[in-house]
Design a protein that fits this description.
Blueprint lengths: L4 H14 L10 H20 L6 H18 L4 H13 L10
Helix pairs in contact: 1-3, 2-3
Length: 99
């Protein structure tokens, strides 16, 4: 079964709510954002230690936390990603950075 990014975000957020991560219907945005950063740090650590089997799980955690945060804050992440991809296609090579 194929799902859209929006459907996946909805499912991920629904699960997070069911598991108690959105008590009272809200969550501290900055705290949730830093949890994404911590998942990225865990991915860096797995890469540094050459624990290649852990990298896919850590990347998945980054995506899951990002989609949950977006959906929980009413952000249509699918539209935002598509809009950003369209903009990025107009940018110069390496965004114009030299070296």
């Amino acid at each position: 079964m194929t799902r859209t990014l929006k459907e996946l975000a909805e499912e991920i957020h629904r699960t997070a709510v069911e598991k108690g991560f959105w008590e009272g219907g809200s969550r501290n945005f900055l705290e949730a954002l830093m949890l994404i950063v911590s998942e990225a740090a865990e991915c860096c650590e797995a890469y540094r230690k050459q624990q290649n089997d852990k990298i896919p799980d850590e990347l998945a955690d980054i995506v899951i936390r990002t989609l949950d945060l977006a959906e929980g804050n009413g952000i249509d992440i699918e539209s935002a990603v598509l809009k950003k991809m369209e903009f990025n296609r107009t940018r110069p090579y390496k965004h114009g950075k030299i070296a």
